[in-house]
Design brief:
alpha+beta; 7-stranded mixed β-sheet; 7 helices; 15 strands; 24% helix
Length: 267
């Protein structure tokens, strides 16, 4: 692995305290990313204070949900951002703590790294409709952002885009995460908005090896009955600098696996 490459990881923690108890900080100290974007922190500012403001030498920047033990995102970075933007819609979804953007702006460049947690619709129709509202508003937000800056969005998107992105695609076509409307949204984001699914740029043909999430029911992990729900989505110029990708499965810190991509990028 080239030491000059910028190492960017995305991981849904399914609770920062739970992931810490399973060794995520020791893994970070060993893997040494320049930045890790995490989702489902499931903590409030008081829970983070004195314990999780930094992980393995990386300083954290947070967007907490109003509801205790729910959602929440963070980005831990080795570099000091020029600005931090917590939230994106000023309303329904900001209350759920789903978006933090670190800006690294210079006179010559406007660059953002974003940690984002998309809603899940798997609990029922009410949350599925919330997910559709999020998608409908979020694509224009990303289009506006793209008009003014380069960015990489890391996150649990809660969508498997193509049949290659989940094991049992035939039986999941009516289930949240693989609905036609969700998949069409992702296609539009990539084809019309012009953003790039960086994993698929580097690994266009993988199937079983691409999964990043496994249900806790049954023996889904043991049998690799998984879904690719975690993404790094970038503007085209940044996507072209991506060189290496790994999905780390040797240890389990969560029901998700860390997705790490290395870029020829200077912060």
């Amino acid at each position: 692995m080239g030491s000059s490459l910028f190492t960017l990881t995305s991981l849904n923690l399914n609770g920062i305290r739970s992931a810490a108890s399973k060794g995520v900080e020791a893994w970070l100290a060993k893997s040494r990313p320049d930045c890790i974007c995490v989702q489902e922190v499931k903590a409030q500012a008081a829970d983070v204070a004195g314990r999780f403001e930094a992980l393995a030498g990386l300083k954290g920047y947070f967007h907490f949900a109003e509801k205790k033990g729910y959602s929440g995102v963070a980005a831990y970075c080795r570099h000091e951002p020029s600005d931090v933007v917590a939230g994106w819609d000023g309303g329904e979804f900001d209350a759920e703590g789903r978006y933090v953007e670190l800006r690294f702006d210079t006179p010559a460049r406007r660059l953002s790294l974003i940690s984002c947690y998309f809603p899940s619709g798997s609990s029922g129709e009410e949350r599925q409709q919330a997910k559709f509202r999020f998608l409908a508003a979020f694509e224009p937000h990303l289009a506006r952002l793209k008009a003014g800056r380069e960015f990489i969005l890391c996150g649990d998107v809660n969508i498997a885009h193509q049949k290659e992105d989940l094991k049992n695609w035939r039986s999941n076509q009516k289930n949240s995460g693989f609905l036609p409307e969700e998949r069409a949204w992702m296609t539009k984001l990539l084809n019309e908005t012009g953003l790039v699914d960086v994993y698929r740029r580097l690994r266009p043909d993988t199937t079983d090896a691409c999964y990043t999430w496994w249900s806790n029911r049954g023996n889904a992990y043991a049998n690799n009955v998984g879904w690719r729900l975690d993404y790094q989505i970038a503007t085209a110029d940044l996507a072209r600098t991506a060189r290496e990708v790994t999905i780390y499965k040797e240890e389990r810190f969560s029901d998700h696996a860390p997705l790490t991509i290395r870029y020829e990028l200077a912060i």
